[in-house]
Amino acid sequence: MGTNILTMTSHNFELDCKRIHDSLRGLSQLIPSLACLTQLERQQLRETYKAVYGEDLISHLQGYEEDVYSSMNMKCSALSLWMLDPHDRDAFVAREALQQDETNFKALVEIFVGRKSSHVLLITQAYHKRFKRQLDQDIVNLDPPHPFQKILLALAASHKAHQVDVSHHISKCDARRLYETGEGSLGAVDEAVVLEILSKRSIPQLKRTFLSYKHIYGHDYTKSIKRGKYGQFGKALMMVVKCICNPAHYYSKALYTNIKGETKDTGILARTLVSRAEVDMNEIRKVFKEKYEKELVDVICEGIPSGDYRDFLVALATKI
């Protein structure tokens, strides 16, 4: 705690605010230092900006997003996400995902799978405060219906009802139930059984269940999904299971395919680096190097044109 106080005391937030407020050039020059700020320091910067200029720093950055130059738009959009408190950021990402022509279910799954239950509660509260809407209900009301809806609602329920402790006994029982309704069944998978398990277990408990599945049956649950009669529900379930079981592998692949232009989710690069920078970026870099035999930073530099936006992404990708 003492380190943060010393850092904040020595940092001239008023000068940074002036440079951000006065010109795009001033903002560009600050990109490296802004990417290095801790969450506490980013909050202090926003408070200083509000006190000096009577405007929220996020609103100021979002004003730049209307710039005709796409690089400026992307840079300010990423900076806006970075400056937001984590639960406000996720509420904003969730709303944006729901408002797209094709709902961005991946972004929603990443929120419900990658956050603690206490954080998900803050997200739903922030979502309601900011948008005057209920996140769960907005997912329910999506049209046309999609298999992801059922899974997301089950995951939302799990954050409200799960037990804190992870039980090995429950994981074995749930693994057997998944087998009996999947590859151990002659008919189509019973989605209700899968959704019941998803809705009643915590993310750590579900991860333990999938580990038990592999231990008992000799292969990953994802392999069972591939060769079972899961239909479209299976495609959605596959992504969720991968995100739960090995998030570093999931995010490494997401980053690589986005940089290489192999995905329609154009926001995943900034979204992933911003949301994981202070969580598990070390692990993501390690897995990325093992999987693609290249450093994440090198791939970013190869795939993104030089400039402030790339510098910002590189700074996030190298955070410890």
TrEMBL record:
<dbReference type="GO" id="GO:0009408">
    <property type="term" value="P:response to heat"/>
</dbReference>
<keyword id="KW-0677">Repeat</keyword>
<dbReference type="InterPro" id="IPR018502">
    <property type="entry name" value="Annexin_repeat"/>
</dbReference>
<dbReference type="GO" id="GO:0009409">
    <property type="term" value="P:response to cold"/>
</dbReference>
<dbReference type="Pfam" id="PF00191">
    <property type="entry name" value="Annexin"/>
</dbReference>
<protein>
    <recommendedName>
        <fullName>Annexin A13</fullName>
    </recommendedName>
</protein>
<dbReference type="GO" id="GO:0005544">
    <property type="term" value="F:calcium-dependent phospholipid binding"/>
</dbReference>
<keyword id="KW-0106">Calcium</keyword>
<dbReference type="GO" id="GO:0009414">
    <property type="term" value="P:response to water deprivation"/>
</dbReference>
<keyword id="KW-0111">Calcium/phospholipid-binding</keyword>
<dbReference type="GO" id="GO:0005886">
    <property type="term" value="C:plasma membrane"/>
</dbReference>
<dbReference type="GO" id="GO:0009651">
    <property type="term" value="P:response to salt stress"/>
</dbReference>
<dbReference type="GO" id="GO:0001786">
    <property type="term" value="F:phosphatidylserine binding"/>
</dbReference>
<dbReference type="GO" id="GO:0005737">
    <property type="term" value="C:cytoplasm"/>
</dbReference>
<keyword id="KW-0041">Annexin</keyword>
<dbReference type="InterPro" id="IPR001464">
    <property type="entry name" value="Annexin"/>
</dbReference>
<dbReference type="GO" id="GO:0005509">
    <property type="term" value="F:calcium ion binding"/>
</dbReference>
<dbReference type="InterPro" id="IPR037104">
    <property type="entry name" value="Annexin_sf"/>
</dbReference>
